[in-house]
Amino acid sequence: MKTQRHLRSFRPAAHRRGQAGLTLVELIVTVAILGILASAAVPIARFKVQRDKERELRRDLWEMRDAIDHYKDAADKGAFQTKVDSQNYPPDLEELVKGVDIQGKKVKFLRRIPVDPMTGKAEWGLHSMQDDPKSDSYGGQSVFDVYSKSTGTALDGTKYSEW
Q1: How many alpha carbons lie under 13 Å from residue 141 in its C-beta half-sphere?
Q2: Which residues are registered as beta bridge partners of 100?
Q3: Is the pLDDT of residue 9 over 80?
C-alpha cells in the first residue's frame, strides 16, 4: 500500500518543468512595468530636491531679513549709533554677524551668513534704501534688503532673484 501511494504522487520531470518558473513573456512584462515605474520616479525625486532647495532659500532670506529688521528696530530705539545716511540699517551683512555693543554687551543679530542653496556661495545681492528696487546694483550705503544672485527660475515660474 505504501508503495502504491508513493508511485501515485510521483510525477515525471517533463510535467514538473511546465509548471515551475516564469515564461519569457511574463518576464518581459514584469521588466517593462518596473521600467515604467522607475521612469516615473526620477522626475518626482528631481522636483523634491529643487523644492527642498527653494524651501531653504526662502528660510535663509527670511532669516536675514528678520535680522536686518531687528537691527533697524534696535537702532531706531537708540540702542546704538549708526551712520547718518544709513537710515539705521546695517552697513553690510557682516555687521549682523559681528554684532554691535549695546550697553556694554555684544548683541549679534545673525549667527552666520547662510550659503545660497541655488548658487552654493555665501554671496547675496544687496539693496540699500537709495537703490532702485528692480536694479541689481548696490549703492553701498546700507543693507535694506537681500536677494539671491541665482538667475534660475523656481517651480512656480518666478525668478529666484525676485524673492
Answers
A1: 14
A2: 107
A3: no
